[in-house]
Structures are given as structure tokens and as C-alpha cells.
Write a structure and sequence with these properties.
- By secondary structure, this protein is α/β, with parallel strands linked by helices.
- The protein folds into 2 domains: about 150 residues, Rossmann fold (3-Layer(aba) Sandwich), CATH 3.40.50; about 120 residues, Rossmann fold.
- The protein has 12 helices and 12 strands.
- Helix 9 packs across helix 10.
- This is Transketolase.
- Pfam families: Transket_pyr (PF02779).
- Keywords: Thiamine pyrophosphate.
- InterPro entries: PDH/Transketolase, THDP-binding, Transketo_C/PFOR_II, Transketolase-like_Pyr-bd.
Length: about 325
């Protein structure tokens, strides 16, 4: 008797590489640019060597080059670690994705503190704040292989500027329906308090919190730019008045802060990284815990929201934080 082997999902960055490689087989306009991250055995390089470019440690130049390629009718996808994309190459992103509105997709692994023991130079808790301030950029933070693949397909079809953040090596199975990229993906609509999850670790924590508190609603958001959040806010408000937003980012400039402005009659609590700088080593979970981003913090925020009086339309509420 043989036992069937269940394939493990790919990590976010491996799912990106696999999906882009497949899309490029039928669209010769797709190009792949990497900043010294390709390594041996990159699937796109193996399948399409004439359309793969390793630009070395020159992130700004890579984005600038992608702008020119997009102007020439190509569909460039560029990838480098999130801190080097969103922070080191910030000016190039502003001009390429914003001012020029070039059809360039930036895929940024190592978002949040997934770089862990690599330290602060390889952490990025500020990228959403930077990119959300650039008009016209679609920002996505997919959870799991299926959702990442769907976002890559969407970006390739659109021809518009995209910034896609993901982690390092974590592997997750996407939520049901993720491949359709709904504006709000409801894992559950029932409950007095609604968890709102963003990104890989925010969604993982929300799923784990629901396992311990089954009577909790959970809405997952894959797109977190202003335009998408402004469209999602009415759907959230029609169903709930209390929200706990979980994201691997600073509260400042993140999705929770944006939703608090878009949902002024609702109670919005942020479970996110605090304002400290973890300067010591540790794995991903340990660094997140040092920043206050762990399951007990989510459960505490849910308990607090449950105990508070329900917000009413006549009571404007403000953003609160767990840290």
C-alpha cells in the first residue's frame, strides 16, 4: 500500500519565480531583473536566459532600467530584498512607479523582520508607509502560494505599477478563494470583533487567533494601497464595528492607520511591530516577539475589544495600539 504525498506549498518568493517563469513561456514581453539574488538554478534564468538580468547590488539602477524597458513595451518584473527596494531605491520607485506610472512590478521578499538574524539592515517595517504615499501604485501583500501566483498574474495582465511584499522562506497554504483575489476575503463573517489580516505573518496570526477564539470574524486583505482600502472599507463597515488589524509593519503608515481614517465610526486596534529596533539575533518568530507581534498580543487585543462598548455611528473612534 502506498501513501500519497501531499505537496508542500511554495514560499512566496519561490511561488513568484515559478509563476513568472510559466507566464513568460507565452508572453515574450515579460522580463526578470534581480539585484544579485538570482543564485544558481533560478527557474526564470534556466527557462529564459536571454530575458533574465542580474544587475548586482545596484537596486536604484535596476528600477531605472526597468522604467526604460517598460517604455519600450516590455513587462519588467524586478526583485530585491524589501529594505533595498522600498528604502534604498525609494527615489527610483517614486519616479518610476509614481511620476512615470511605468508598468513595472517590484517583488520584495524579506519584508517585515523575516530577515531575522540578518539584523536591522535586512528588516523592513516601513515599506508600506513609503509606497502607500506614492499615488497610482497597487500594493499587495499575499498570503500563501495560490494568492502570490494570482497577484503575479494580475500584475502581468495590468501593465500598471505594482509593489508586492513577501517574506523569506515561510510556506503557507492560501485561504479559500484567494486565487480569485476578492476585495475582502472573508474566512469568517460571524463574531462581535473582526480580525483584519495583512501579509504572511499577519494572516498566520489571525488564523491562529481564530482557532483559539472561534467566534471571531476574519477578513483578509491582499491589496493595501489607498484605492483598494477605500473600496474595502464600506464592505467592512457594513458587517462590523470593531476591528483588530494584524500586520508585520509599523503601525505608523500601515494598513491599520489607513483603515482608522477610512472607518471613523468604527473601533480600530492595531497589532503591529512596536517602535523599537531589535538589535540582537534570533529567528523570525523571536524577532517578531521582541517587537510585540505575537499571538498573545492578538488575543489580548481581541479580549479588550470584546470588553469595550460597541461603537455607534454617532461615536467617532480613533486608532489604538497594543504596544
Amino acid at each position: 500500500m502506498t501513501t500519497a504525498t501531499v505537496a508542500q506549498p511554495l514560499s512566496g518568493r519561490d511561488a513568484y519565480r515559478a509563476e513568472l517563469t510559466g507566464l513568460a513561456a507565452t508572453d515574450d514581453r515579460i522580463l526578470c531583473l534581480e539585484a544579485d539574488l538570482g543564485g544558481k538554478g533560478h527557474p526564470f534564468q534556466l527557462a529564459h536566459p536571454d530575458r533574465f538580468f542580474n544587475l548586482g547590488i545596484a537596486e536604484g539602477a535596476m528600477v531605472d532600467m526597468a522604467a526604460g524597458l517598460a517604455a519600450g513595451g516590455h513587462k519588467p518584473f524586478v526583485s530585491t530584498f524589501a529594505p533595498f527596494a522600498a528604502l534604498r531605491a525609494a527615489e527610483s520607485l517614486k519616479l518610476t512607479l509614481g511620476y512615470l506610472n511605468a508598468g513595472v512590478t517590484v517583488v520584495a521578499p524579506y519584508a517585515g523582520v523575516s530577515g531575522a538574524w540578518f539584523g536591522t539592515t535586512h528588516h523592513c517595517l516601513e515599506d508600506l508607509a513609503v509606497l502607500r504615499a506614492v499615488p497610482g501604485v497597487t500594493i499587495a501583500a499575499p498570503y500563501g502560494e495560490a494568492e502570490m501566483r494570482a497577484v503575479i498574474r494580475e500584475a502581468a495582465r495590468s501593465g500598471k505599477p505594482y509593489y508586492i511584499r513577501t517574506g523569506r522562506n515561510a510556506r503557507y497554504a492560501s485561504l479559500a478563494g484567494a486565487d480569485q483575489l476578492p476585495l475582502v476575503n472573508w474566512e469568517s463573517e460571524d463574531g462581535d470583533v473582526c480580525l483584519v489580516s495583512v501579509g504572511e505573518e499577519g494572516t498566520r496570526l489571525a488564523v491562529e487567533a481564530r482557532e483559539q477564539r472561534p467566534g471571531t470574524a476574519h477578513a483578509h486583505l491582499v491589496h493595501v494601497d489607498h484605492e483598494h482600502l477605500a473600496r474595502a472599507a464600506p464592505e467592512l463597515a457594513r458587517r462590523h464595528r470593531k476591528f483588530v488589524v494584524v500586520e508585520e509593519h509599523r503601525t505608523q503608515g500601515g494598513a491599520a492607520e489607513a483603515l482608522a481614517l477610512l472607518l471613523p465610526r468604527c473601533e480600530v486596534t492595531s497589532v503591529a511591530a512596536d517602535r523599537s529596533w531589535p538589535s540582537y539575533g534570533g529567528d523570525h518568530a523571536q524577532v517578531m516577539a521582541a517587537l510585540g507581534l505575537e499571538l498573545p498580543a492578538v488575543l489580548k487585543a481581541l479580549h479588550h475589544a470584546t470588553q469595550n462598548p460597541t461603537a455607534t455611528p454617532s461615536q467617532p473612534r480613533s486608532l489604538s495600539c497594543t504596544s
